[in-house]
Amino acid sequence: MSRFLLHCLALGLLSVLPGRVHAASLQVAPVLISLKPGEQAAALYLSNNGDEPIQAQVRVASWTQINGKDTLTPTTDVASSPAMTRIAPGKRQLIRVVILNPQSNPQQHSYRLLIDELPDLQATHEQENAVHFLLRYSIPVFIGDGKETNRIPLGCNWDARRRVLSFTNPGREYARLSDIALLSAS
Fold first, then answer.
1. Smallest Cα–Cα separation from 114: which of 166, 59, 182, 159?
2. Which CATH class is domain 19-150?
3. Is the pTM of this model over 0.85?
C-alpha cells in the first residue's frame, strides 16, 4: 500500500474516532548545542505553549553513526539538570547540559539530548477515547576540541537509481548542511 494511501487511511480513522485529538505543546530551543574547549555547560529551554501542564524527561546518550545508522549509548560523561520537569501552561524551564567527565583525547565528541514528553495519566484515564500525541526531541550536542581550524571538504555522492544524495565527512568535527539544492543538467 502506498504511503499516500496509508496517510489517507490514518486521517480517515482519526476523523471517525470518538473523543478529541490532543496536540502536543512541548517546544525546545535551541535545536543544536555546541560546546567549545573550556566550556562546562550549556543552556536549553523547554516551553509549554499549551493550555495544560506537561511533564518531560531529559536524558543524554553518547551518539555515533556507523554505516549511516545512529547508535545511542548511555553515558556518564554529560548530564542534564533537571532530568525530570513539570512545566505550567505558557511557561518555560531552563535545562542545563553539563560536562561531568571532560574528554582528554583530541577529537570532537557527539551526544544526543533526548527530551520526551510524558503522558498525563489522569487526562489519559479521563479521556480514554482521545488521541494523545507525545513528542520526543533528539537534540545534537557536540563537544569540540577546537583544534580543527581548516575545514576539510565534504565528500558528496548522488545515487540516481535510488535518488539518494549522501555526504561523507572526513574531518574530526561535525559539519552542518543547509540550503542544499540538487540541479539537473537541463
1. 59
2. mainly beta
3. no
